[in-house]
Amino acid sequence: SPLFEGRIALVEGGVQLRKRPDIEAPRIEILKSGSELDVVKSDGRWLYVTTKDGKTGYVHGRLVVNDKAAQ
What is the pLDDT of residues 16-45, one digit of tens each? Predict the structure, then answer.
C-alpha cells in the first residue's frame, strides 16, 4: 500500500497546495500547520490530496506526516 494512505496532517504551516506535482505549478492555497488531508494517491515524491473543505491538489510528501504513524 502507499506510504501515505488516508488522512494525514501537515508537519508545518505554509505548505503550498499546488495544481500539479511541480514546485513551479500555480498555488491553490497555503495550508496551515496541522491541516488534515485525505491522500487520494501518491505521484512520485508528491501526494495528490483533498482538503477538509474539498479542494484538491498536490503537496510535497516530505512536508507531511501520516497521523497514524505519529500516534
Answer: 999 999 999 999 999 988 888 888 998 889
What burial class does residue 39 get, using C-beta atoms within 10 Å of its C-beta: 0-12 exposed, 13-18 middle, 19+ buried?
buried
How far apart are the two ends of the chain, measured CA to CA in Å? Answer: 19
Q: How many whole angstroms from its chain centre is CA 54? A: 13
Cβ 19 vs Cβ 11: under 8 Å = no
Q: Name residue 10's amino acid.
A: L
| pTM summary value | 0.80
58: nearest Cα among 13, 34, 12, 24: 24
Of residues 20, 22, 55, 50, the one with CA closest to residue 37 = 50
Helix/strand/coil for 61 = helix
